[in-house]
Amino acid sequence: MSSKPASQPGSKTAGLIVGLILIIALSLLTNYLSNHPGVHKALEFPLWAAAFGLLANIILTATGTRDFIMPAVKTEFFLKIGLVLLGCSVNITQIGVVGAKGIVQALIMVTCVFLFTWWLGGVFKLDEKMRAVMSTAISICGVSAAIAAAGSVLAGKEELTYVTALVIFTALPLMVVMPYLAKAMALPVQVAGGWFGGNIDTTAAVVGAGTIHSEAAMKVASIVKMSQNALIGVVAFILAIYFATVVERKNGGTGERPSARVIWDRFPKFVIGFVLASTLVSLASTYGWAWLGKPVLASINNIRQWLFTLAFVCIGLEISFAEFKRLGFGPTVVYIIATIFNTLLALGVAYLVFGGILFPAG
Amino acid sequence: MGRDCEPVHERGEEVKGSAGGIAQLVTLRIWAAARGRREGERMKITEDWWTVIVGFALIVLAVVGLNVPWKIFSY
User: Fold this and answer.
1) Residue B20 at interface with chain A, using a CB cutoff of 8 Å
2) Can you tell me the distance from the alpha carbon of A262 to that of A148, in angstroms, rounded to the nearest whole number?
3) Nearest CA of chain B to the CA of A152: how many Å?
């Protein structure tokens, strides 16, 4: 598909406006169906939103106009604003308890999944840069992590595009299937949330899966995912050191050490917003500030649902069928095996961390 | 397009051979890791902070009572 039309400033603005109108219209349709008697029980709103996004994607791709509206497809932007607002419905104590468990789970998951994917990529003789980008994407948080890793190891655009396409293609099925599997297995809410947060690669799909399961699971899943997101900078830093001192040295470089500043630069700032919002509401609850009472919080929750709906519509719109056709066999197989490993391991670790085995449940 | 917008890995390969260029290569890697490789990616750092700014702006709107549009289509 050509990206020419979207690259011109004028058409980019037009694409942004038209795309936003389309995304808002599909969100309104989602909202209408989710609240329609007899309909909303069948499918939760993230599924409606993603399905409408996907349908629009198919039509736009067939008519060759998908690239035109892509400037408006800002999945992460909408989602992260929604996550900042989610802070208003989570007590700071809960963030402390769940976040601490989430960090333990993230450390186990990131280490095991990264090393497994790195090893598997070696078995399939993938290039070291591709292995680094893919391992980071699967073990941490999909696209953002892949971009950070690509920067650290100076990977080419091809590797990044490839991994990004795989991340987006696997996220949607996982978002749909995992909540129903969790219900079928009768997983406790915290374990289900820990499973979604520890396994699904993109934050948007994690929130989607949590929402489909339950509000409580969505909160746990979001906090766990944010704990994992916070590790992006650390992994980018370690990768930069490894490639500078080991890989580059093998290829004739000097092996100078990079700066730790990358840890802060890559830290997801919306997590700060989430914690600040939670602190504000917790203080309001403690000191009884009426201006931040229940009606206001209900209104903030509504806005948050709207932002999540916009993000879920964008999930459906951002899948590129053209990219999918270009995916090669080796990397795709590695990605799928690593995702299955990630899914099974995340279930076990979620049980250990959130199921009352390593730490008290609740 | 200015030099800053050129792909970082290409610039890195340019300087790889010279002694002084090696330090430049490492600096470029850090720059790339911190800021993102692609031109559009440089926006992401700012965009990340914008999510916090817009989020708190929406909280302020809800506090001052400008929440009617959200109420009409409530979940």
Assistant:
1) no
2) 9
3) 5
